[in-house]
Design brief:
ATP binding, 424 residues, manganese, Dna Ligase, domain 1, D-amino Acid Aminotransferase, Chain A, domain 1, nine-stranded antiparallel beta sheet, alpha+beta, 12 helices, 4 domains, ATP-binding
């Protein structure tokens, strides 16, 4: 079996590693991949948005299944193009990927189908958005409608910050066209939980829960990033909360998309907030999270190829999704300066220390091979993941493992999962 994975980050490395464990023993290609995927698959130098080149490659190499890892190509309609050429592909079509591609759409969908979320208003006119602030309750949240690399959310503590935020998003276009429309919504307090699910159009199968750490600095300070670390499972995602979400969120979302003529096949990522007044949906993503994937997939017991194919074929209800009874923690090693300016091309040493370690993973994100060296090639460079019987133990092992690898300007948060210590 030949499989192509589209993407080049830590998420894609985790997907490729899981694919490599399949009983099908697939021949794996990654476009464009990174220095980590290159060790267990064949990298192909095709950009993720060059749909025609990807299709030509899939035809030429007789690829049996293509996995789309990233949001940009999904929202851009890559699945539709592959299907039009008769190619088998995993991921939502363009009209379903809008669930992530437009925050205004997803908020309106939740409102229409009574799926719990924060109160909000959508604006495509900066003057009207500014006027709305006059009577708003602070703090308040501004969200760019479109894709913004996970960074288009601004939490504003007062009107002054909100005015500045609207100017950033809508006038200065800091995130380009993503800020043509913005969502202004109420600020929710509570604990965030990420829950990923496989979806086949009608059925869903939940993966284990996780929690991301978005802010760049310890204590949840600094700018929003793509994610600085995760742990799984979340001890705060209780059986009671799971039951509520199954009744009021998960199936209702799948059914709502189908009712709108936007049948969803792929991954729905639920970003949840556990508030004093119940669980609310913060956002949807239409693909695996990054770095959530790096703690979820290592704990999954199923052959992932079987699950991907069940989603495509509409037979997910026949799959018994199982996860190990343990825990995982991922600490992201970034280039100092991320998510703003940072240097690339720094030689990475110590990667060989992970080759014979059980339950220890070094997922590559921003890396590339130059000659015999592997060097930094992005803001988030590596994801160090450890599995153990408990979250505390996994956390200790992950942080200990960060010492096994080195590069100039190496930066990490030191408090990933600290909130779980007293609960473990």
């Amino acid at each position: 079996m030949k499989i192509l994975v589209v993407g080049g980050g830590g998420r894609e490395h985790a997907i490729v590693r899981k694919l490599s464990e399949s009983k099908r023993k697939p021949e794996i290609y990654v476009a464009p991949g990174n220095a980590g995927t290159q060790q267990i698959a064949t990298n192909v130098a095709i950009p993720v948005m060059d749909f025609e080149a990807l299709i030509d490659f899939a035809k030429k190499e007789k690829i049996d299944l293509t996995i789309i890892g990233m949001d940009d190509p999904l929202v851009g309609g890559i699945v539709d193009r592959f299907e039009a050429e008769g190619l088998r592909v995993f991921g939502p079509r363009k009209n379903a990927a809008i669930l992530e591609g437009s925050k205004a759409f997803s908020k309106d969908l939740m409102k229409k189908y009574d799926i719990p979320t924060a109160g909000y208003e959508n604006f495509n006119d900066a003057k009207k958005a500014l006027k709305y602030l006059d009577n708003a309750k602070y703090p308040i949240v501004l969200k760019a409608d479109g894709l913004a690399l996970g960074k288009g959310v601004l939490i504003c503590k007062d009107r002054l910050e909100a005015v500045s935020g609207i100017e950033e998003l809508m006038t200065k276009k800091s995130f380009g066209d993503a800020g043509n429309t913005i969502v202004i919504e109420e600020f929710l307090e509570g604990r965030e939980v990420s829950v990923l699910s496989f979806v086949d159009g009608s059925h869903y199968a939940l993966m284990t829960s996780a929690q991301d750490h978005k802010r760049a600095k310890d204590g949840d300070e600094g700018l929003n990033t793509g994610g600085m670390g995760t742990f799984s499972p979340s001890p705060f995602y209780t059986e009671e909360i799971d039951k509520y979400c199954k009744e009021h969120i998960y199936q209702k979302t799948v059914d709502a998309m189908k009712a709108e003529g936007r049948e969803f096949k792929g991954i729905i990522f639920y970003g949840l907030m556990l508030t004093n007044t119940g669980v609310k949906v913060l956002e949807y993503n239409a693909r695996f999270g990054d770095p959530e994937t790096q703690v979820v997939l290592p704990r999954m017991e199923n052959d992932i190829v079987d699950v991907f194919e069940a989603c495509i074929d509409g037979t997910l209800d026949k799959i018994d999704l199982k996860f190990e009874d343990n825990a995982a923690v991922c600490v992201v090693l970034a280039s100092d300066g991320y998510p703003l300016e940072y240097e690339k091309g720094k030689k990475i040493s110590g990667l060989e220390n992970f080759e014979s370690k059980d339950d220890l993973y070094c997922f590559h994100a921003g890396t590339k091979k130059v000659g015999d060296d592997i060097v930094t090639n992005g803001g988030r460079v590596l994801g160090i993941t450890a599995k153990a019987a408990t979250l505390n133990e996994a956390r200790q092992r992950a942080y200990e493992a960060t010492k096994l690898v080195y590069f100039d300007n190496k930066y990490m948060r030191n408090d990933i999962g600290r909130s779980i210590i007293v609960n473990d």
